[in-house]
Amino acid sequence: MTFAFGDGDLTDPDRWLREQEERTARLTAEAGRAQHELAATQVTATSRDQSVSVTVNPSGVLLGVRFSPRATELTAAQLSARVMEAYGAACAEASQRMLEIMSGLVGDDSSAMAFLKSTLPPVEEETR
């Protein structure tokens, strides 16, 4: 008698168990690699006029803001707009990098990837 389970059969339960352990080890290693890549990822973007640069992590957490000497010539409203411009660009790039890293783990067409994409804000088209 043969019992089918998942993507294999149980005619050789020891082999099936080894295959599952190997699969689990492979997935664990891939998850660890993705976690390491995400932790190491930082994206810096600069406003078009080069007055502001911001750095974010893949989740969009602001890690740093740098102002060039050009920033001193801007009004508060202009400076705020430049910060938001650079922040938006950095977040968009960081989101793309996060999706690239995660696609290797969960697959491009998976429901997990669809969920990740659904949590990201829409990317605004750049106007110059």
From TrEMBL:
InterPro entries: YbaB-like_sf (IPR036894), YbaB/EbfC (IPR004401). The keyword DNA-binding applies. It holds the Pfam family YbaB_DNA_bd. One of its GO terms (molecular function) is DNA binding. Keywords: DNA-binding. This is DNA-binding protein YbaB. It comes from Catenuloplanes nepalensis.
